[in-house]
Amino acid sequence: MSPSKAKPEEPEFPPQPVNILTDYHVSTTTPEPFYTSYTPNTPIAMDIGSSQFRIGLTNSSSPNNVFPSVVSRYRDRRAQATLTLIGNDVYGDPALKSTIKTPFDGPLITNWDYIEYMLDYSFEHLGVDSDNGRVNNPIIMTEPLGCPLSQRRGMYELLFEAYRVPKVVFGIDALFSYYANKGKDGVVIGTGHESTYVIPVVSGKGVMSQSKRIDWGGDQCQNFLGKLLSLKYPYFPTKLNSHQTTNLFKDYCYVSENYQEELKHILDMDVLEQKDIVVQVPVEIASNPEPKKSEEEIAKQQQKRKEQGKRLQEQAQQKRLEKQAQKKEEWEYYSKFKTEMVNLTKEQIEARLSEDGFDDLDDFNKYMVSLEKSVKRADHEEQEDEFDAGSAWPLVDTPDDQLTDEQIKEKRKQKLHKANYEARERTKELKRQEEEAKAAYEKEQQEWRERDLDDWCTTKRVQLASAISKYKERQKLLESFKDRKSAAAQQRMKNIADLANDETGSTSATQRKRRRNANATIDNDPNDTFGANDDDWNLYRDISNTSIEEEMTNIMTEITNLEDDLLKYDPNFHHEDTFAAATTFDWSSSVLHKFIHGPRPNMTIAMQAEGLSPEEIASHPEVIRKNHQMHLNVERIRVPEILFQPNIAGLDQAGISEICSGLINRRLEREAAERVIKDVFITGGLAKLPNFQTRVERDFRSFLPVGTPLKVRTARDPILDAWHGMQMWADSEECKSGYITKKEYEEYGAEYIKEHGLGNMCLM
């Protein structure tokens, strides 16, 4: 086979940077630290979120313990004990991953036992100690915006009755973060793990009556990204877990400054070259793949298999002959016994049959009938191997009047056997003639190539061009049937109408003559000559597309055979010259290709064009590596855009910009609106997304009057600033007056809270 030539017009692309997919990993050598400077009566700040717990004493500048909100209950069968692992400890052993659970269902707590385990774990690592069996520290804790009464009641019961803390105060994490960043008047956009809040703040106090919540956060983002990738790569060999999709979202997604405009051009080649991210899932590839066998080795293996098959056939034939001999012996033995039965009594016959393993005389007779058939069949096969065709059927040519009734029956059998024998002989002769014709054709072609290779190549190329032209004509005809106004479709409809007219009531002379013949039927009408000529049946073939499709299949087989011959013998014919390669789509203009494979050609298609077998392609190391790659392009902006357009994910809510527009232009008083737009504050984990601040500022400019003073800023530490705000707020007078004591809880109930500028409203 001639070597493949490269297309000169195919541009060379540099390799794309490949990013390795990361998973959640915690080093087992660094367990959660224990705090050694515990002091009683110092407030404990607890930022309890559905993704992380951040807990520490307020005399520290940062939280003492930060760990994920997960629990694993593990049964140690050897120790006969149940172990409870919290936070990062559950990731120390891969066997525990299947038992990981969270106490949250969405933003709400549903398993209070797990929360108690986590608080035990937190207080133990803080070094909480007392001589009265209580936690003697005041608690400052976060809760969601519009916290349900059942959630607050459960937390009150846990803190006041289980830990017997002296007092507790609740607040909203986004407002604590705003307090840590010294905000007074502004719009706080808090993006959390389960939801996003928009809270106006006037004179340092959150206006709860005008606050809004969007049921979309970081957890929904990573879930949505995982679903998009599953839809994009339905047969991806590896299933992504939540940690992997979370890392993909954090590392590669960003907020688009102008989503609609960027979406129009993100799959353009020049833009895709910059935006497309290749993510490689780790995969093990055999370092020493099995070498490809040469043609000589393959021929040896085939010869070896043939010899083994021949030996097996001989062994089977030997066993069959032994069985036949055994059955013949049994037939002779039982036939002799059958003749002796005349002189035996009934008791002797039954005893003999029982001794030979028969139930009764009927069972013996059935076995004899089966044995007789087997012996006759074996004798017949032996006769076929040795018989003479001229003398094998002596009764065939004998007239019936010279034969008895039994001989006439035997004559019919012999005629049937003779017809079968002659049919087999004709089939053998046809097969032999075909093989001889094929061998003669191959010999003729070989002599032609040796005599004049150029002439042979030119002739084959002309035949190939003619076959391709026929195929395209049939393909065009098949496509034209889809257009009912085309000439081919009109002719087809005319043929169908003519057939229907013939069946119902034609006014032609032939049909009138047929109707005059009252005795004529479909079967005996002398005027009905349809079908006498083979061309008549082409009418039905013209109506159906099946004939065209069959013809196209035959032409394609001819094209493939001609191309195989040219690839084998013509030094100037390459795989790029084949019909399949010529009709290959242009990947650079395919939106679907660029969406799935990025701005590079598909390696599998290129290898198929080179003529490699499917097995070679599937086992190629580079193909295996490519099959474990994902391309992130549109998803990078689509997932974060849901914060601004929730309808993308099927959420029937307004986005951040729409909520802020209604808040400033309609719901707030003019003076308050002018004050809050001077400080638009973004906090929470999603605030770390690139371009988030720029997008918010752009959207605000779009609905504010020209020249309106506007300032948009992001928290210094969007994740930990909520805890820092609690730590700073603990020393304020507002905090001291906002505590609820155990006595007040017992008197007023769980629905009672003291209002302050950073918490929810009291509905009592």
Automatic annotation (TrEMBL):
Primary subcellular site in the record, as a coarse category: nucleus
Name of the protein described by the UniProt record: Actin-related protein 5
Protein family according to the UniProt entry: Belongs to the actin family.
Subcellular location: Nucleus
Region Disordered, residue ranges: 288-324, 377-399, 412-433, 496-535
Gene Ontology molecular function: any one: enzyme regulator activity
Pfam families in alphabetical order: Actin (PF00022)
GO cellular component terms attached to this protein's record: Ino80 complex
Originating organism: Spathaspora passalidarum (strain NRRL Y-27907 / 11-Y1)
UniProt biased composition (Basic and acidic residues): 290-324, 419-433
Keyword set includes Transcription regulation: yes
Keyword tags: Coiled coil, DNA damage, Nucleus, Transcription, Transcription regulation
InterPro entries linked: Actin (IPR004000), ATPase_NBD (IPR043129)
